[in-house]
Structures are given as C-alpha cells and as structure tokens.
Design brief:
- The protein is an alpha/beta fold.
- The chain has one domain: Rossmann fold, CATH 3.40.50.2300.
- Helices cover 37% and strands 21% of the residues.
- The protein contains five helices and seven strands, in the order E-E-E-H-E-H-E-H-E-H-E-H.
- Strands 4-3-5-6-7 form a five-stranded parallel sheet, sandwiched between helices. Strands 1-2 form a two-stranded antiparallel ribbon.
- It holds the Pfam family Response_reg.
C-alpha cells in the first residue's frame, strides 16, 4: 500500500485534502483526528488570518470553516475564498456554535455549501464531509 500525505495515494486512490480552520484547540484536534482516521489528509489552521494563504499552498478539496473565529469573521473568509480564482470551486462546510434563526441562510448566501451547528455530532459531520468531497 502506498501512503503519501497531502494529495498522494492511499491504497491506489487520490487522498482528499481537507483544510480545518478552527481556533478552538479541542475542536480543531477532534475534527483533524476524525478526518485523518477516515483517510483524509488534513491541514489544521488555528489563526483565521492564515487560512487563505494555507489554502493556496495546501490546495484542499474541502474547507471546514468555523464561523466564530477570534481574529477574523469566518463569513469574510468564505467570501474571500469564493472570490479567489484558485479557491473559488473548493466547497466549504461551515460550523458554528451560535446558530440562530436565519444564520444558515446567511452562511449559505456567503458561499458555504454545507452547514452544521455545534456541538457537531460525528455522524452528521462525516456525512457532510463525504457528501462535499464526493465520497
């Protein structure tokens, strides 16, 4: 079996790459651990200000984006991703702890293809991830 991180081969098929933008250490580690255990190559980003630069380098198949980041709005980052020629087609799964009435619609209007409210259950999280990366 061949194994390479970052878009290489695992068992002969291309590994899907997922950028995880989450400022909460515990949540970021949980997302990354679950995704890696499922065979995805993962790039964690704790600081939202580094997300676009990391995305350009990592070239992800999916971005998991916390909406309530401390340093920058996740909504602003989604808009920036969707207006970037290199990243515009990368699907975004938005996650937020502050899900109020109208939030999902507002988040989807920004360009997110998926939406989950925290606390995130692993079953729906993995179903959303697999749906967005075409698995």
């Amino acid at each position: 079996m061949q194994v390479f991180r970052g878009g290489g081969l695992i068992g002969g098929s291309m590994t899907k790459r997922i950028l995880v933008v989450e400022d909460n250490d515990l949540n970021r580690k949980l997302f990354c651990d679950v995704l890696q255990a499922s065979g995805f190559a993962v790039e964690p980003v704790a600081n939202g200000n580094h997300a676009i630069e990391k995305a350009r380098i990592f070239n992800p198949n999916l971005v998991v984006m916390d909406i309530q980041l401390q340093d920058v709005s996740g909504l602003d980052l989604i808009a920036t991703l969707k207006n970037d020629a290199q990243l515009a087609d990368v699907p975004v799964l938005a996650v937020t702890a502050y899900a109020g009435k109208g939030d999902e619609e507002r988040i989807r209007e920004t360009g997110a293809e998926g939406y989950l409210s925290k606390p995130v259950s692993l079953g729906p999280f993995m179903a959303a991830v697999k749906g967005l990366v075409g698995q």
